[in-house]
Every structure is written in C-alpha cells, then in structure tokens.
Amino acid sequence: MKEQHQPQLAGVWMDHHQAQFIVPVNGEFSFGTKVHSGEYHGDKGEHAAMNAEKADARKYYKTIAHHLMEYDEIYLFGPGKSQEELRNFLHEDSHFKNKRIAVGASSHLTDHQMVAKVRDFFNK
Predict the structure, then answer these.
(1) CB 61 within 8 A of CB 47
(2) Which of 25, 29, 82, 118 would disulfide-bridge 11, Cβ 3.0–4.6 Å?
(3) Can you tell me the distance from the alpha carbon of 74 to that of 46, in angstroms, rounded to the nearest whole number?
(4) Quick check: pTM over 0.70?
(5) Which residues share a beta bridge with 24?
(6) What is the b/e burial string over 40-68, where b = at least 16 CB atoms within 10 angstroms of the residue's CB?
(7) Overall fold of domain 9-122
(8) Cα–Cα distances in Å, from 46 out to 49, 51, 53, 54?
(9) Residue 3 DSSP symbol
(10) Who contacts 107 (Cβ-Cβ below 8 Å, separation ≥6)?
(11) Could you read off the pLDDT of 44-84 as tens digits, one per residue?
C-alpha cells in the first residue's frame, strides 16, 4: 500500500519590506521565519536607483523562495502587489512547478488575524 504524502502548508503575509511565514507547528498555525528586504541607500541617480530597486526585489523574492522550497501548498497575502509579484517570480522557477500557490489581499492585520486567515484558508 502506498503511503500518502501529507502536504506541507505555508502562509506568508508580505509587503515590499518583509515577509512573515505562518506554518503549522504541532497541529496549530504559528509564526515561523521572517524575511526582510534589502534597501538601496545610494545617491547615484534615478537610473541606478531603479536598477538597485529591481535587484533588491529579486534578491528579496529569491530569499523567500528558498524558504518556501519545502512547502507544497503556499498562500501569499498582504497589502499591495508584492504577493502577486512573488507568485509570478515563483512560477518562473521549476522548483515550484507542481506546488499550489494562491494569492489573497489584505490590509494590515493583527498577528491573531494573520494566523486565523491562514488557518481558514487551508481549512476550506
């Protein structure tokens, strides 16, 4: 008899500055890894600043992707468009080809509201 794989679940509340992982621990969702984005602090002109901003975003998304490798089902949510940008970034990575990635929007939430949102999403 083939053993059934229990999918690994992760919720990620994020904006363009930080990502907060919410994962199951002993059957309950709780906070896990936190990733912060780098910020460009130079004064080399508008073109250089735009290039640095794109490079920083790519590095930020790459770091989040690294932490998401072990998860099968991923729920990205938060204010703005960063979660959609990350989803698009992950779709370009073959490691995420067979993973379920969903995106939701939310304003700023309390810690309890973030955990409840992830729990409710995966318990649908």
Answers:
(1) no
(2) 118
(3) 35
(4) yes
(5) 29
(6) eeeeeeeeeeeebeeeebeebbebbbebb
(7) Nucleotidyltransferase; domain 5 (3.30.420)
(8) 5, 9, 10, 12
(9) P
(10) 79
(11) 677 777 777 888 889 999 999 999 999 999 999 999 999 99
